[in-house]
């Protein structure tokens, strides 16, 4: 039976007035619910179509008449087969008669899958009303006939009888689209081809199959009834729009059965599992095992096919204990100008399950650090808070910090817990004064002077500044560190620079009209600072090799600074923003104060020679930085990570070292 609404969008549910005898599927197919004898008189019942949204209902009466039993081959041949006639109409326009194709829709042929035959099984007869005057030949084309899969449908060329030769499987092919042809004995087309659609009607020949045989889910202890746990899903290869493919779920068993044998329930349509009883306690039952059943035919236990799967539900810990500091005050100290130094360890206790969000501590500063010079990291193993300096501290500006800190868990405390959600403590940090080197302003200093200046002429005066205001030191002393042509001298007390020889622009020591000399300022401590026209850090090595594919073969590099501590390491390593290809192709990671690793960021880089600039910054005050270029040979490698194309790349210009 079929129902067609005016707007074509209604969702219809079919019903039967005799549900114990006849059932109507969602696709309109009428089934016998039991075996029974039909009388010779037509059996009547009512089929209803109800709009699922508006509940509006329509009815029609069905008369069911038993087919007469034919005996003998001749009588069987007389069984009525539907005729499909090539559509046409004739009209008279003067003369003779002419034919004109009409718009005609051939109703689809519905054929159940898994038919037992016998085969070939007759379906319809294709014929033309011109077979009365002409000898015609019929044929059928399309997938299932003369195209793969071939031979499923055949046609008698004389009678036009269309037959199916084997059982069909809807899960493989749900419909066939064929085209029927009629020609005369000479092969001339006498009719326009007609389209024939054969729909394969679904039968319930597939069991539901769960996507996983074992499903894992979690639920927090103390969850209220109605808490969502997990969703299990099964699929059915049968038609999902018919009852054969409509699944229903249910729980067959629960283990263990405490504190109640029905701690969970399942939505029979969606497979959602939720809690239905209170009393989940991780300390008593840590895990539940459910056996879930899926049944098609909308869960009909008589006609539906079933399958089962296992749902394992783990009861998780909740945060019912906050972290607590082991002391009210912690102490630490740090030398000035040092960064990435741990100055204090904060310890806490927590009674929740270790290494879970309810146990893991998070620390934060609540006061005493307005400029953000400290941070607190969490040790993942001990759960301690590591107070670390992230910005240099100047003893002359700040001699002590008193920080207030708080510790709380990664997740909030469970509702109803009477403890405060966090614990607080104080951290007292003392800054240690160190002897800082003097510095020149400006540095480097540019002096313009014509050549030929006589010896003994005064050029300029350098005045260095000492940042140490609280150390008792003598005045600064000046000295010469580098003077290639020996043209200059500096007064050790006042920093006045005078010439000791005639300045000559054509000297080999003058490059691009520039002569570089370096002078040193010292206090009576251990640190010094020199002023020069150019300053540079150096990389070791200057050349390196790596494979062209992304693999663990990083290049270890070391920064070298002519300064001494604290104006040398630890160093910061960075890649420049330009050109963009540098950061796109490479990445650099600092592994210690003086060392870093350079490696590929992308999966593949073509073999060749690459210049990789690296920006290095020291820890001096003020910071000094420079850019060094590392020449990298990218090559093809064997399975051991050794280059296999050395000769080709070395020929391109990289040294054999």
Automatic annotation (TrEMBL):
The keyword Hydrolase does not apply. It is found in: Cell junction, Adherens junction; Cell junction, Desmosome; Cell membrane, Sarcolemma; Cell membrane. GO terms for molecular function: beta-catenin binding; cadherin binding; calcium ion binding. One of its GO terms (biological process) is homophilic cell adhesion via plasma membrane adhesion molecules. Gene3D superfamilies: Cadherins. SUPFAM superfamilies: Cadherin-like (SSF49313). Residues 103-210, 211-325, 326-440, 441-572 form the Cadherin domain. It is a single-pass type I membrane protein. CDD domains: Cadherin_repeat (cd11304). One of its GO terms (cellular component) is intercalated disc. PANTHER family: CADHERIN-2, CADHERIN-23. This is CADH2 protein. It comes from Balaeniceps rex. The lineage of its organism: Eukaryota, Metazoa, Chordata, Craniata, Vertebrata. The gene is Cdh2.
């Amino acid at each position: 039976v079929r129902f067609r609404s005016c707007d074509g969008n209604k969702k219809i549910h079919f019903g039967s007035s005799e549900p114990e005898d006849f059932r109507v599927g969602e696709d309109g197919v009428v089934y016998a619910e039991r075996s029974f004898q039909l009388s010779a008189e037509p059996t009547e019942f009512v089929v209803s179509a109800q709009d699922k949204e508006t509940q509006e209902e329509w009815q029609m009466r069905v008369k069911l008449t038993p087919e007469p039993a034919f005996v003998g081959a001749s009588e069987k041949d007389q069984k009525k087969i539907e005729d499909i006639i090539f559509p046409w109409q004739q009209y008279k326009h003067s003369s003779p008669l002419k034919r004109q194709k009409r718009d005609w829709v051939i109703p689809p042929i519905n054929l159940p899958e898994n038919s037992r035959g016998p085969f070939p099984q007759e379906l319809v007869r294709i014929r033309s009303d011109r077979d009365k005057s002409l000898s015609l030949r019929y044929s059928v084309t399309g997938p299932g006939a003369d195209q793969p899969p071939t031979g499923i449908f055949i046609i008698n060329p004389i009678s036009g009888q269309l037959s199916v030769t084997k059982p069909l499987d809807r899960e493989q092919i749900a419909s066939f689209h064929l085209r029927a042809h009629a020609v005369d004995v000479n092969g001339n087309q006498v009719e326009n081809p007609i389209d024939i659609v054969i729909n394969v009607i679904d039968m319930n020949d597939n069991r539901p199959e769960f996507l996983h045989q074992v499903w894992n889910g979690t639920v927090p202890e103390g969850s209220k009834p109605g808490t969502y746990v997990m969703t299990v899903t099964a699929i059915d290869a049968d038609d999902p729009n018919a009852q054969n493919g409509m699944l229903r779920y249910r729980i067959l068993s629960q283990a263990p059965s405490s504190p109640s044998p029905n701690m969970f329930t399942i939505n029979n349509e969606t497979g959602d599992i939720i809690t239905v009883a209170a009393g989940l306690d991780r300390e008593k039952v840590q895990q539940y095992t459910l056996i879930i059943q899926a049944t098609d035919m909308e869960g009909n236990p008589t006609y539906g096919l079933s399958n089962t799967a296992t749902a394992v539900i783990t009861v998780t810990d909740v945060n019912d204990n906050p972290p607590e500091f082991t002391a009210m005050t912690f102490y630490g100290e740090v030398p000035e100008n040092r960064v990435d130094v741990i100055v204090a360890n904060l310890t806490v206790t927590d009674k929740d399950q270790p290494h879970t969000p309810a146990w893991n501590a998070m620390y934060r500063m609540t006061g005493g650090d307005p400029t953000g010079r400290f941070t607190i990291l969490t040790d993942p193993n001990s759960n301690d808070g590591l107070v670390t300096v992230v910005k240099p501290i100047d003893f002359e500006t700040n001699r002590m910090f008193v920080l207030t800190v708080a510790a709380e868990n990664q997740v909030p405390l469970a509702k109803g817990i009477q403890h405060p959600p966090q614990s607080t403590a104080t951290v007292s940090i003392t800054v240690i004064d160190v002897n800082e080197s003097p510095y020149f302003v400006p540095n480097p200093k540019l002096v313009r002077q014509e050549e030929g200046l006589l010896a003994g002429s005064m050029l300029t005066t350098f005045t260095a500044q000492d940042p140490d205001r609280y150390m008792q030191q003598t005045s600064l002393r000046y000295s010469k560190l580098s003077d290639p042509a020996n043209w200059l001298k500096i007064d050790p007390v006042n920093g006045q620079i005078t010439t000791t020889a005639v300045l000559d622009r054509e000297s080999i020591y003058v490059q691009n009209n520039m002569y570089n000399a370096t002078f040193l300022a010292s206090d009576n401590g251990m640190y010094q600072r020199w002023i020069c026209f150019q300053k540079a850090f150096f990389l070791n090595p200057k050349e390196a090799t790596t494979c062209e594919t992304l693999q663990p073969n990083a290049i270890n590099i070391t920064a070298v600074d002519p300064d001494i501590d604290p104006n040398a390491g630890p160093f910061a390593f960075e890649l420049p923003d330009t050109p963009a290809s540098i950061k796109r192709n490479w990445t650099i990671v600092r592994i210690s104060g003086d060392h870093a690793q350079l490696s590929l960021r992308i999966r593949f880089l073509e073999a060749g020679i690459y210049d990789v600039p690296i920006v290095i910054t020291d820890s001096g005050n003020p910071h000094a930085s420079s850019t060094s270029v590392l020449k990298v040979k990218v090559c093809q490698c064997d399975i051991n990570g050794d280059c296999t194309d050395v000769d080709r790349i070395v020929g391109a210009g990289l040294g054999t070292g």
